[in-house]
Amino acid sequence: MQASLSPAPALQVSGWFNVDAPIALDALRGRVVLLHAFQMLCPACISHGLPQANRVHKLFSADQVAVIGLHSVFEHHAVMGPEALEVFIEEYGWPFPTAVAAAAGDGGPIPLTMRALRLRGTPSFVLIDREGRICFEHFGTIEDMALGAVIGQLIGPSR
Q1: What is the pLDDT, as a whole number, of residue 140?
Q2: Angle at 143 between CA 157 and CA 102, to 5 degrees
C-alpha cells in the first residue's frame, strides 16, 4: 500500500542489537530506510519477513539502503523480552540493526513506535525515502520483486 509522504516519526525504542550506538532516523537521511516490524513468535515474520529484510540488507549497498528490524511486541509480552530476542537474533544470524520498540507508558499492549506508525500488526514493512518521509507501508508478506521495485524507484537516479 502506498503511503502519503509524511515525515517518519522518531523511533521510540528501549534497546538495540547489532549496533555500537543507538540509531536515529534523522541520521540516516540521504539513504532509503527499510523498517521491518516483526515479532519473534510471528510465523510469517520468521518464514518470510525477516529473511526478506536480510536479503535486502545483503543486496543493497549500506550507503543506499539501511535495513532496521523493529521488534514490536503487542502480544505474548512475557516470553518475548530482550533476553529472548538476543538469543533469537544470534541463533538466526540476523546481521542488521534491530531495535526493541518501547512499551506504551499507559500499559496498553501496542508499542509506541508501532502506534506512531499506525501499524496493524506483523510483519509490516515501512519504506522511508532519502528525505525522511514515509513513502510505502505494507502489512503482511510481500513478494521480493514488488518490494525490490519500490526500493529501486527510491534509490534510482530520478529521485
Answers
A1: 95
A2: 85
**Domain residue extents for the chain:** 2-155
What's domain 2-155's architecture? 3-Layer(aba) Sandwich (3.40)
Q: What is the pLDDT of residues 119-131, one digit of tens each?
A: 999 999 999 999 9
Q: Give the best-scoring range by mean pLDDT among 49-63, 64-78, 105-119.
A: 49-63
Q: How far apart are CA 35 and CA 105, in angstroms?
A: 23
Predicted model pTM: 0.91
Interacting residues of 139 by C-beta distance below 8 A, sequence separation 6+ = 1, 119, 120, 121, 123, 124
pLDDT of 159 > 60? The answer is no
